[in-house]
Write a structure and sequence with these properties.
This protein has about 160 residues and is α/β, with parallel strands linked by helices. It contains six helices and six strands, in the order βββαβαβαααβα. It is globular, with a radius of gyration of 15 Å.
Length: about 160
């Protein structure tokens, strides 16, 4: 049983799509919700996730941080950090956390393949599957340690980035 209860939303940020998952109210199990088209111009994807946070009365949002195998952060991690900052500014006071998600998309592809989903059919659900893995990993880590996993996204930092645009 996790230290905290409440619905968590998991997010896997990609260049073209954003996978979304949610937990049950006890914060124990993650399940897929939807795949959103990435909309860098209008931010419709961020708005859709914010609406989901409100509709499900989520207590937290977990965004995957795709570090390189070396542990360093590359372009994809910078994109995820920026996205998490935009989301944090939109869903405040609900906290947004970044959690290490190395190889989750690879693992999601493998799980889908192993469950019989053909390669062509994976594109529409792999982002959701990756979001489930990200969120479940965070839920499991919290259940073991009693502390939320990952790093909190500072709203002040997110607002500074928004002003620069």
């Amino acid at each position: 049983m996790p230290a905290r209860t409440g619905v968590r939303i998991g997010v896997d940020v990609g260049n073209a799509r954003v996978g979304v998952a949610a937990s049950d109210p006890s914060g124990t199990f993650a399940h897929p919700v939807e795949t959103l088209p990435r909309d860098q111009r209008s931010g419709a994807d961020v708005e859709a996730i914010a609406a989901l946070v409100t509709a499900r009365a989520a207590v937290e949002v977990v965004v995957g941080l795709p570090r390189l195998l070396s542990g360093q952060e590359g372009t994809a991690a910078r994109i995820a950090r920026d996205y998490a900052g935009q989301l944090a500014a939109r869903v405040t006071p609900v906290p947004v956390r970044l959690v290490d998600e190395r190889l989750t998309t690879v693992a999601a592809h493998k799980r889908l393949h192993d469950s019989g989903v053909p390669g062509r059919g994976q594109r529409s659900v792999v982002d959701q599957a990756a979001a489930v893995l990200i969120l479940q990993s965070a839920l499991d880590a919290e259940a073991l340690s009693g502390r939320p996993s990952g790093e909190i996204v500072s709203l002040g930092r997110a607002r500074k980035k928004e002003r620069r645009r």
